Predict the structure.
Amino acid sequence: MRLAVVSPFVDNRHGTERALAELLQRLASDYHCEIHLYAERVEDLALTDRKSGSLGKTGVIVWHKVPSLPGPHLVKFLFWMFSNTLQRYWDHLFRRLSFDLVLSPGINAWNADVIIVHSVFRRLQELSQDGGARKAQRSGVLRELHRRAYYGLLSALERRIYSNRRTALAAVSQRTADLLARYFQRGDVRVIPNGVDCRQFSASARLARRGDARKRRNLSDADFVLLLIGNDWRVKGVPEVLAAMGALPALPLRVIVAGNDAAQPFRETAERLHVQDRCRWEGPRSDVLDLYAAADVYVSPSHEDSFGLPVAEAMACGLPAITSACAGVSALIRDGVDGFVLHDPADKAALVRIFEQLYSDEALRQRISEAAMQTAQQWTWDRSAAEVWALLQEVTRSSRPAAFPDPN
């Protein structure tokens, strides 16, 4: 099967992009697909040189570099949608390149045949509008206005693209499938959860790197380190984590927050709560295991998260993980058995109570850790890729034509 895959970038530093990399590797190696990846940037993925005569060969991933435009997310995204469509059409007309299907992780192409939905921006738009004036004051008026305009554009595109029943949709969680049914009346969505590479993410690998990871961050053995990874830190629950830390001044809690967002508003919140000296802000990194190695607990009381890949990876590493019922991964977690699920992500008292329990009860940490690893071992990328492959085969057998038919 020859696939066009459309994604702005692929790497190991971000959850959606890491999930896409795992899928593409398996579609190429296990299912012998010829994959043409249209992206602005690709890292951490084995590629075949387009000049090596790879066209027509199976089991390869060929990168077609799409030009990018610097500027705000809104401008960059509009240019991305235009440029990747133009480049694919150019290849169709002048390189006689046709595809069986166009696959996209989200709304990256007007004419995708299959979309794997990792985020529902209609829901994020609703969250950005709740208490808008107060949030704008904290994060900056211009930044908040841009965020809301960006989510508004993506929500409009979702209405156009996801409502088209000729486009097959797969969701990374039942929660995401429910949102697609609520907003776009799509009751035909396939649920295909993300997986975890338990060979890479394991307790033994984490513990082997623990000492060095903590030393480089000036963390002592006595420090009890919380970790949160993700973008849009407000939605991921960073304010709630800081508030819970502020309520526990006697405990040696530290937090590492890693990802793409402006740290200054959260630094100001931390200063107001007198916990700034216990916070560390980091950008995204490909070697995400280094972050898990430094931590004692993973915490992300998300207000919205289609899946929550770092939760699953942390569990595979043997870290007790705390998430919320608003994260898709929560449906796969047994609260109090292999992890913790907050019914309300804003429930500071519940978060404080869990922090106290985990800090004071080593036996509880060990019990949760062992159960979490066993649970995570059931979530494999091989299973996820097999389900995606089955969906692709179903779509090719249907009456949906390829986005750009074979010119011959």
Summary: The first helix runs from residue 15 to 29. The radius of gyration is 22 Å.
